[in-house]
């Protein structure tokens, strides 16, 4: 952890946000564990409503904010390149999904893993530290272990629900497409389980052997186990719907608070810089928020019109979960690739 990070953590804001994300997942997991012990179940329609609330109302605004915070001090040329690359990658995802929906589903799952794991890796670097992750291979293992909990654990814990909603997502384009791979579910599930268990064991084992005396490994191990427990106990629809706003977004706030202010990158500040009045900053922030919301809505409408059956079931709740799960992956792929991997100067997960 950097000197600046340590200094900032001393003020108590960042660890509070960081701790709240842990407490949130523990609380949700405890609630559903208690319901399971009591023999109670949450209706699937209620689960779908929670998913849509979490992913649309709570998480989507933060995704837009990440890009805005990244672009606000960049040059106009860079902003144009960024937006063009973003739209091109989103269009490529849509094309893949329309041509080969099963492959599109596989890419959507991979995107969720990379977003969750990649975002978490940078949070570790900015907060509790990554001194135990000494090689690129270990960092890859960390991404797969923490991000893999989002998809691999629900496959094992809630196979029927995972399979049903995967089928709905694919049936937006081709209702028969899942039929070709359905007979292999019995084999893929244990393979995924063993593979993921191996990744977690390697991640935690190597980290333990190479740990510095800073508590970084213990924090990483505790959070990794927490994620596994959360996705093993909470029904997959609710688990995914609340994970991104309660864990991913909250922890990115902690990361941003922990690092230094955005570096100068040669561009005009979209909020007007230090000389702007409070009113000017508020107005520009509002304009940026509205513009981002309209752009996202335009992409959603375009995707809706291109997909043969955007609501593949009579239930608008279940159909909404299927549609939004694919759509959020469409915009999350460039979120990870363009905003995270290709932007080496700063990026949405910036840690100095």
UniProtKB/TrEMBL annotation:
**Domain of life, source organism:** Archaea
Required co-factors:
Fe(2+)
Annotated membrane topology is: Multi-pass membrane protein
Give the UniProt keywords, A-Z: Cell membrane, Dioxygenase, Iron, Membrane, Metal-binding, Monooxygenase, Oxidoreductase, Transmembrane, Transmembrane helix
Pfam assignment, any one: BCD
Enzyme Commission code: 1.13.11.63
Which GO terms label this protein's molecular function in UniProt? beta-carotene 15,15'-dioxygenase activity; carotenoid dioxygenase activity; iron ion binding; monooxygenase activity
Q: Which family does it belong to?
A: Belongs to the Brp/Blh beta-carotene diooxygenase family.
Q: Which residues cross the membrane?
A: 20-38, 44-60, 80-99, 105-128, 140-158, 164-182, 191-209, 224-246, 281-304, 316-342
What is a biological process (GO) this protein takes part in? Answer: carotene catabolic process
Gene Ontology CC terms, in alphabetical order: plasma membrane
- What is the protein name stated in its UniProt record? Probable beta-carotene 15,15'-dioxygenase
- Where located? Cell membrane
Give me the reactions it catalyses: all-trans-beta-carotene + O2 = 2 all-trans-retinal
């Amino acid at each position: 952890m950097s000197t600046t990070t340590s200094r900032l953590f001393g003020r108590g804001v960042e660890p509070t946000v960081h701790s709240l994300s842990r407490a949130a997942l523990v609380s949700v997991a405890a609630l559903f564990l208690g319901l399971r012990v009591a023999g109670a179940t949450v209706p699937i329609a209620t689960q779908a409503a929670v998913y849509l609330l979490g992913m649309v109302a709570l998480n989507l605004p933060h995704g837009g904010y990440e890009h805005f915070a990244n672009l606000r001090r960049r040059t106009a040329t860079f902003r144009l390149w960024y937006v063009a690359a973003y739209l091109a990658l989103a269009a490529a995802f849509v094309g893949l999904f329309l041509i080969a929906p099963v492959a599109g589903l596989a890419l959507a799952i991979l995107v969720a893993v990379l977003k969750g794991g990649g975002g978490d890796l940078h949070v570790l670097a900015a907060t509790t530290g990554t001194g135990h992750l000494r090689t690129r291979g270990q960092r890859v293992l960390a991404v797969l272990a923490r991000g893999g909990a989002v998809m691999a654990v629900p496959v094992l814990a809630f196979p029927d629900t995972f399979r049903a909603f995967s089928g709905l997502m694919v049936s937006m384009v081709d209702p028969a497409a899942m039929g070709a791979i359905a007979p292999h579910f019995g084999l893929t599930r244990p393979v995924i389980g063993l593979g993921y268990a191996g990744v977690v064991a390697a991640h935690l084992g190597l980290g333990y052997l190479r740990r510095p005396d800073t508590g970084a490994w213990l924090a990483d191990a505790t959070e990794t186990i927490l994620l596994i427990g959360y996705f093993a106990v909470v029904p997959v629809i609710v688990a995914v719907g609340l994970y991104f706003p309660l864990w991913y977004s909250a922890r990115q706030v902690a990361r941003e608070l922990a690092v230094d202010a955005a570096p100068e990158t040669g561009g005009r500040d979209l909020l007007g810089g230090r000389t702007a009045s409070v009113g000017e900053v508020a107005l520009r922030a509002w304009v940026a928020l509205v513009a981002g919301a309209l752009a996202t809505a335009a992409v959603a409408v375009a995707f809706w019109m291109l997909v043969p059956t955007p609501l593949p079931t009579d239930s608008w709740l279940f159909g909404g979960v299927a549609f939004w799960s694919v759509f959020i992956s469409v915009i999350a792929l460039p979120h990870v690739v363009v905003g995270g991997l290709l932007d080496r100067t700063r990026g949405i997960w910036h840690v100095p």
